[in-house]
Amino acid sequence: MKHSRQKRLQTVGLVTGALAAVWCLWYFLYTRFGIELLHCPVHSLTGLYCPGCGTMRAIVALLQLQPHQAIRYNVLTTLTLPFLALYLALHILSYIRRGHGLAPGRFDKWIAIGYIVLAVAFGIMRNLPWFAFLAPTGIL
Question: Across the chain, what does the average pLDDT equal?
């Protein structure tokens, strides 16, 4: 049992390290050279803002300790990211301890449905003229 827990811990470490390396490379290219590797296909094709538009810029603003700017880029991401990180951390800890993530339950289903409804409403609202303040913009 101890060996398998150690193996799971190594797997989590390797995956986390690989993701961190990719993120650091992207962050370096974005902040130093202004190279954006990810463009929103919805905005590129339609000119409309999807619920995820501004997410990467919001995360960069959070890493630069600018929460006010992160909220301007994508308020939905900025406010829900801590809860998503906690949920992911609980699944990872469960995987390391027991060999599987948390067992999905009805609570998970309602969280997913609620988040989808919230994201769709947010995506519609940020494209309406009355809610133009939800569009991803910088602070002047």
Answer: 80
